[in-house]
Q: What sequence folds into this?
DNA sequence: CTGTGTGCAAAGCTTTTGCACTACT
DNA sequence: AGTAGTGCAAAAGCTTTGCACACAG
């Protein structure tokens, strides 16, 4: 392996630093996974991440993909979106936003938080505080 | 087993009729499951339903519980609530409402839809229509 | 007697756990 | 050399599928 100039590429070299900023040691597998997921705004299941790793020739085990994605969520590098009872999606967009979930084809689409203004939140139960508000708008195809 | 007057108990005898109203033939297993889930407003996982069936001495297989709950959802007898990526909850309350999800203990609490007024919904993508809006407010214990 | 519909064992997913191994101190 | 942390094979858990059986027409 030969090194590349630090400033030449932004994405490739920024990833390790980004991981460290979030308290994650940038190992080879983690950088691979982060590069795939963070390369653009997208919603991928663990399975899809694994498939892309294979395509890129990176051999990472299923368990590591799951554990790494879990770690990324814990460290707020990505968001976990739950819409399907049998599969979790990982969202590279961590800014406040909501989702359309197309129940016919299983795809997710972002909705800016500003497009769903909520007048007020209900009072939370005694002894608790609100951590997040997730809105999912289930849509179907008219055809 | 001895029969009870038809009008004496409301719940027990109303269930078969309710199932039929929703186009579901009221077999023994389905009535058992419906009685457990619909006896009161609650959020149960498939697993919890199975456990209660066992406690009531009703022997119904795991597969039948899953398939029956899926059928109930399809026929709008109950609602499926998705908050945990590894488990689905079934909600006996089918009226418009949302949920608090306590991430610390995994419990769900109803929130009346009127308590979360939404000014407007975003325009849905071309060729689709909104089927439902689910709001989940994740809460944590302050302690 | 035929066909539709039901219930369940077994199979198929997704996700977690426990342990060998690595890489720093 | 010791120790904290990483990656993965195997195990566990949730859900679906495929088929034998039951029941209505």
A:
């Amino acid at each position: 392996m030969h090194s590349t100039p630090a400033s030449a590429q932004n994405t490739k070299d920024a990833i390790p630093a980004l991981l460290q900023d979030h308290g994650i040691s940038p190992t080879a597998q983690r950088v691979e996974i982060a590069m795939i997921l963070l390369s653009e705004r997208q919603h991928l299941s663990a399975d899809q991440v694994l498939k892309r790793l294979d395509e890129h020739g990176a051999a990472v085990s299923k368990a590591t993909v799951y554990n790494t994605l879990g770690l990324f969520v814990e460290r707020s590098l990505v968001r976990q979106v739950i819409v399907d009872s049998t599969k979790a999606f990982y969202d590279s967009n961590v800014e406040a936003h909501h989702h359309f979930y197309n129940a016919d084809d299983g795809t997710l689409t972002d909705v800016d938080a500003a497009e769903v203004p909520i007048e007020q939140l209900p009072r939370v139960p005694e002894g608790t505080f609100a951590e997040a508000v997730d809105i999912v708008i289930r849509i179907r195809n008219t055809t």
